[in-house]
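Handout, page 2. Input:
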Amino acid sequence: MAKIGLFFGSSTGKTEAVSFQIKTEFDKIQNDLVEVHNIGSASPDVMMKYQYIIIGIPTWNTGELQDDWDVFFPNFRSMDMKGKKVALFGLGDQNGYGFNFLDAMGMLADEVLMANADVHGFWSSKTYEFEESKAKIEDHFVGLGIDEDGQQDKTPARISAWVQQIKDEWGL
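Output:
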């Protein structure tokens, strides 16, 4: 089975922790299926070696990118991700930053789509309470939404269901 590359950026450790929770959930399907990379030390060449890619990004302040992703972002303009299957997850605080909840995930989705990737793993936005999000299309987010500040108790079940969804969508 093809390996999955999981790339995350994390300043506080929350996105990193969720990344490893996702890896652990995939390990239940097949051990060592997911290889985890901190985007701060990864190159576009490393990302492009994978057919299946999971990308995790937290939203900072009022809808800003995490620092490591801010540095990596310009690389997408020269990457041709045609045929790559990409799933996104984002962290945000819907109570403290409800007017830009998961915005960074939406900005990242735009870049990945402009690089010609196939985006999978859309997630229902119905169990969240927020005002606005660049990651929302109709009643779904462009990926899994995680709120470790206001809904931490829902994270394990959301990850489990999303990993199963990705497994099915990718035919793994």
